[in-house]
Design goal:
Largest sheet: 3 strands, antiparallel
Order of helices and strands: EEHHHEEHHHHHHHHHHHHHEHH
Number of helices: 18
Shape: elongated
Length: about 400
């Protein structure tokens, strides 16, 4: 759920002075907010509930071959006749119940594919909303809902049909579900999935007025965990970018760093990525886990860089180690957080490393700032010990 307000792992536990939760800027601990209790994934972009293509006139009759074909057609005509969103929701739930019965799986797949190939559609008045198990809980059009259900019925058949959806690029909502279906049904075709996502990210008309479906599709980035996506997303992080697109790119990039920390941090430093967004870069580098040698070496390279400004350094030192998390339902990835014990261990490892840095001549220029960081970590580790998340010294 990267289109609207998302749940955050909030500051609890031993943090003596919890800071406001604002990912990826602030430190957090381990309680995941229930995504159902936060705002929906609908964006403020215009016409989220409307189809993106002009629809044929109502009550168009399609050729039907069975009860499920007729059920889809009846739903189409009732939606086109004009009903309120709540009635649309009930109508779609009834249709879903008929289509997703195990005993009629083959017939349902045929009926869905037949309708999708017809090109017909109807608006539902509902948002594009992702729920548990990467499935939609709301869909703005009948076709989008049917694509979602096809993926639940048969991932391979859904992936095969998604190739046509991805080639047509007629709707960002359909495209987003097709990306998910393709990724799930053809997991071995990662390069093709990357190419399909690049087409979406570079689609100017969709990027200029991003809908919820368009933005949710950015979950492909952490799913593939390819550090090269940093260069793809960087332009969308500019302050001049559409605010919803900027938010989605930020979430996707942050999850990329979490999914592939060593590769992502290496790419940021190698390409000098986010040079024009130093505070964001500080937030991401603050995610480095010093217990991993590769991440630790990259972090040391960053701290000793001559291009590191005082402002960026200050941001890093206020956040490190940054363990904040988004908690949401997503099209492809799962949200995961740290336990309080994990966070305590992360703080303890960071404290040990900061103390070691202060003994090394190469860090002499940072000594006063590292001492401030040490003092903060000492308080956090002591509080974790009092709370039982770390063993006390004898």
């Amino acid at each position: 759920m990267i289109t609207g307000a998302v749940g955050l792992i909030i500051s609890v536990g031993w943090l003596l002075k919890p800071r406001p939760a604002a990912l990826p800027s602030d430190r957090a601990a381990a309680t995941i907010v229930d995504p159902s209790a936060v705002a929906s994934s609908a964006t403020t972009a215009p016409n989220l509930s409307a189809p993106t293509t002009q629809l044929p006139p109502p009550n168009l009759r399609l050729t039907t071959h069975g009860a499920l074909d007729q059920a889809i057609l009846d739903t189409l005509n009732r939606l086109r006749a004009g009903i309120d969103p709540e009635k649309s929701r009930l109508l779609l739930e009834a249709l879903k119940g008929n289509l997703l019965r195990p005993e009629s799986k083959a017939e349902a797949i045929g009926a869905i594919l037949g309708f999708l190939r017809s090109g017909e559609d109807a608006a539902t008045g509902l948002a594009f909303r992702v729920g548990p198990k990467h499935a939609l809980t709301e869909a703005p059009t009948l076709r989008t809902a049917l694509l979602d259900w096809l993926g639940q019925l048969d991932s391979r058949a859904a992936a095969d049909h998604s190739v046509q959806i991805l080639a047509a690029m007629s709707s960002p909502e359909e495209y987003a579900v097709a990306l998910r279906n393709f990724a799930q049904g053809r997991p071995e075709q990662r390069d093709e999935l990357r190419n399909y996502f690049d087409r979406l990210a570079s689609h100017g008309a969709w990027a200029n007025q991003p809908t919820a479906g368009y933005l949710e599709a950015f979950d492909v980035v952490p799913h593939l965990a390819d550090p090269a996506f940093i260069n793809t997303l960087s332009p969308h992080l500019a302050p001049s970018a559409h605010h919803s697109l900027r938010h989605a790119s930020l979430v996707a990039l942050d999850r990329l760093v979490l999914a592939n920390p060593k590769g992502s941090l290496h790419e940021m430093l190698r390409e000098n990525a986010l040079e024009d967004q130093p505070l964001l870069r500080a937030s991401f580098l603050a995610r480095a886990d010093v217990r991993d040698r590769g991440q630790r070496e990259l972090l040391e390279q960053y701290l000793l860089s001559s291009s590191l400004s005082e402002r960026e350094l200050d941001k890093f030192l206020r956040l490190f180690p940054n363990a904040n998390r988004f908690a949401s339902y997503n099209l492809l990835t799962e949200s995961a957080g740290h336990s309080l014990a994990d966070l305590a261990a992360l703080d303890a490892a960071a404290l040990e490393r900061v103390r070691e840095w202060q003994t090394q001549p190469r860090f002499s220029g940072l000594s006063p700032r590292l001492k401030q960081l040490e003092n903060r970590l000492v308080e956090q580790v002591a509080s974790a010990k009092r709370s039982g998340y770390l063993p006390r010294e004898n």
